[in-house]
Structures
1.
Amino acid sequence: MSDRPLTRNIDPVAGPTWIKTYEANDGYQAVRETIGQRSPADVLDMVRESNLRGRGGAGFPTGMKWSFVPMGKTDGHKYLVCNADEMEPGTFKDRIILEYDPHQLIEGMILSAYTIAADVGYIFIRDEYHVATRRLRQAIAEAEQKGYLGNDILGTGYDFHLYVHVSAGRYICGEETALLNSLEGKRATPRAKPPFPQVSGLFGRPTIVNNVETLCNITHIVGKGPDWFKSLGLGDDSGTKLFGASGKVKRPGCWELPMGTTIGEIIEDHAGGMREGLALKGFLPGGASTDFLLPEHLDLRMDYDTIMQAGSRMGTGTMIIMDDKTCPVAMVRNLEMFFARESCGFCTPCREGLPWIFRILDDIEEGRGMPEDMEVLDRQGRFIGAIGNTHCAHAPGAIEPLSSAIRYFREDFEQHIQGKRCPYAGG
Amino acid sequence: MSRKDPLIIQPLSSEEITAIENEVSHLPFRDAAAIDALKIVQAHRGWVSDESLAAIARLLDMSIEELDAIATFYNLIFRHPVGEKVILFCDSVSCWLMGGDNICDHIRQKLDIDYGGTTADGRYTLLPVTCLGDCDHAPAMMVGDELHHDLTPAAIDQILVKGNHNE
Ligand SMILES: Cc1cc2nc3c(=O)[nH]c(=O)nc-3n(C[C@H](O)[C@H](O)[C@H](O)COP(=O)(O)O)c2cc1C
Ligand code: SF4
Ligand code: FES
């Protein structure tokens, strides 16, 4: 049995895995054994038992999410949507699967759709992923030809049609309700919840939105069973995870490792540690909208709850590494420029507050900062960062790296203000 | 005016209309094809003019304002003419950590344009973009449909042909 289920078919040198090779490696076996053979309720139980948690950033238990979809006779469509918008700065994991093993995702989607009795699926993919889009479309055509997709799948009477929708940009499309508005052809403004998408989602119909990596895991949970899946994790969480590291480490990259691998192992062993002459100052464990952690956290396991207890979030599991020659104020300014630009503009604290925060950080970095600026950052950060003060999680996410940077690197901010210049500049 | 009014339909070719109607056929409402329609027209013409926008709105039973609100929301729908190739330069954090700003300055100098600008010969438009999902090979950018990464000034000189022929 493979310990690296998600990447076993991924070999960038050999190119994408097309259906012949995929099938030869037991591909679509789980579909053959499930569609029309097991009941949707049985598959849902397997997913629940597996303890799979969503890999899109929030870590919500997948089985529980699915259990809210109304089952039984319905008088219209139900939808399964794959979130392949991958735009969280510092995140580069879904693209690898999409480009090199598109059938793994398609198989996961067939199984997931069957479980919630969805008849239509969409893969919502960002425009810039041209290669992935081409390969997905080709793989879908292959799967249709083999009878895994379309009407009467494998003669079982189950219908599932899968389409690729290419986005037109904007980070906020990754937020699942904004994504649904965008799929409906509208501006990508997040929706109020409730109603939750499981009940009233795309075009008002029951809808599940899951991340690429989440859906791929379904293939293996159904294929090899929840116990096997649970045994893969080293700590509290099940399965493996695509972890990554970027920044000035010796070997930036993305690796499939057991859930619960320690941060130190990822940074030291897999990423090769810091480049010559640099030391680790801090890192964002799972993309731009997670709180900074410090070298003292290297022994922590990459588990949802462990990282949460340390005051951050595992997010997407792709770490952004900050070295000691990089100015934390400048780094946070870059992050807040992104968050301010990508606000959808719907609610005031986010639309007005994030540009304000960006301008203050710009002032501080450029030597124009005032002592009062720190108070504004603290106060606005608390206000904008509080869940419930804004319409979606974009603004609270924006505050996570800011408030943690102030907590851990306050001296750096104060040095900028007192010295009226960036102490890292020209160094 | 009816939808078939030739004066109104003119800013869309029959090929574009067929492609848009094909999208509409999969969807429960005509206006649900708004983004697809804008993208189809942009794929044919490089950008979406006022005239095309009005024609799409009419085709999808929408008001012009409604459709323009959608068109201007998305950063990859161009409401102004752009160069033959659009450079989408990643200005997100991992690329920034790896010296992306310096590479972008090099592009700006070489092409003599800033973000939002188009070279005098109409070859390139330079725009910032959010993380391209290639952070382990930062800095990264797209030129047209092609991804380029591990960028250095020397690599930029190879990738981009000189933008301004008047120099
Ligand atoms: C601002 C914002 C951007 C997001 N972007 C993405 C994204 O690009 N990809 C993704 O899978 N999830 C993204 N999410 C999370 C989704 O809203 C949603 O939780 C996820 O797709 C659910 O899938 P999962 O349960 O499989 O993790 C984003 C959330 C927010 C608030
Ligand atoms: S928090 Fe920001 S992104 Fe979310 S709805 Fe409000 S303005 Fe839009
Ligand atoms: S930050 Fe530039 S590719 Fe991810």
Note: The longest helix of chain B spans residues 14-25.
2.
Amino acid sequence: MMTAIAPRTSVVPLRYPSPIGGVAGTSFKPEHLPAILEAGPQRGFFEVHAENYMGAGGPPHRALEMIRRDHPLSLHGVCMSIGGPQPLDKAHLARFRGLVARYQPALVSEHLAWSTHETSFLNDLLPLPYTEASLRVVCEHIDQVQEAIRRPLLLENPSTYVAFRESTMGETDFIRAIAERTGCGVLLDVNNVFVSATNHGFSALDYLADFPLARVGEIHLAGHAEQADDEGDLLLIDSHDGPVADAVWKLYEIVIGRRGAVPTLIEWDSNIPDWSVLQAEAAAAQAILDRTGPAALTGDRHAA
Amino acid sequence: MPHEQDLSFAAAFAPALLDPAQDPPTIVTGPNGKAAARRYAVYRNNVTVSLIDALASIYPAVQRITGPDFFRAMARFHVRSTPPSSPLLFDYGRDFPDFIEAYEHAQAMPWLADVARIERAWLDAYHARDAAPLSPVRLSAIAPERLADAVFIPHPAMRIVRSPFSAATIFATNRDDAPVERIDASVPEDALITRPDFDVTVRHLPPGGAAFAACLASGRPLGEAAASALETSVEFDIASNIAGLIDAGAFTSLAAGDA
């Protein structure tokens, strides 16, 4: 199949989205469509993995059109491989751009990770070393994505299980540098912070104190699972298969208290429960958001 | 500085993900000098299991027939030898039916690869471009003397899978959880997969029907398609076949031809 990048001037002009403010949303799962339609339009938003809607037609697009008609949409890319050393897949970038143009999502995000090596797609969010060289290539890739979609991207902090010996920067410094060089925003996954802090033995609060919070345009909350590392110590797995942990809720309240209310997603990708369970988790996030004033729209208050 | 240009991390990190014989990369570590073997194994597991899960979701009937343990062992071999080349996982597994056909432990189920081919066609039909199917009145509007020259445009979702086994019946009885009765696997069946609106359907084609439909789908005129179908089967009936194909939503449009 051939996918050409459309000429710059054709197709639908891309709009800059209007901010959706401090609302809580959920992952959209097709099995929930009947329950969502029955409930009718409601406060909040839905987030989808972009790749699931890159087919030519059929039921996925029909479902997404029905969801989009009544709700703001967040388009979350999973496979762009922004953190990898090789050039971005131009066909994939064109498909991503096409989805942004077609569905006009309120939020567009991708990951600080890689998933393609040479010609193999490895279907996982793989980690990268934090060096000047990797920083440069990540920034080039984000420039390309933002040029294609003609709006800022929100880049998500990863959850990781290993560190690279060659890293010369901390993750928060790396992410801040990306945001400053490319103008992108940040998607702060609070569960990822908690998972990585546990796995690497640092303080989640210290990480958040050092994080470019003023750049945060969306927050993710999700469940994690427990395993053991080589020494038998606790190793947390970013599994997205259960409720948000109490410790993650506490970190979230601290983040919202400092950042103000920003769109927050309950992310749930496997062992998917009934729609009402996701709704209840989103309501818990909404209650925290509603106690807080709106976030300042611009400006990084971090003292360098 | 040469170090600053070093972006070899992916080349060092990737190879052992799908190859259990390779040692974990030495470029990664746990915190404070802790080991990274089990930590790296999380990525290995994520990659392998998620790709096996992807095949299981594309080939649910194959998995039901073989049972999950057999399926996952078979899929693991395939995932390791043929990882996806596209980030679109609904495009993955095109080589899996051929793999099943050659898989040593599946030789007792010679029809299994054709069941997989129907499942692959089902998913392609599911994601195919939307298009309105041909209305039957269009055919009746063509003058009888020009019918033989009529040319049909296939619907983007239309697929044909031919099998020397009862693959369509085996597919249909294993796509849900209903109990399976004994099936005579030796009856040759040709399957027509269509999605005129939003529901994918799989039908059996009558004798000669697959040759007829395939010939029409390749752009040959109706008269030529009928002749090739009659070569395949003397039982072939053009009127019921063309009506059946239109009813199934196999075409989007029709041209009367140049004659």
Note: The CA atoms of residues 24 and 282 of chain A lie 5 Å apart.
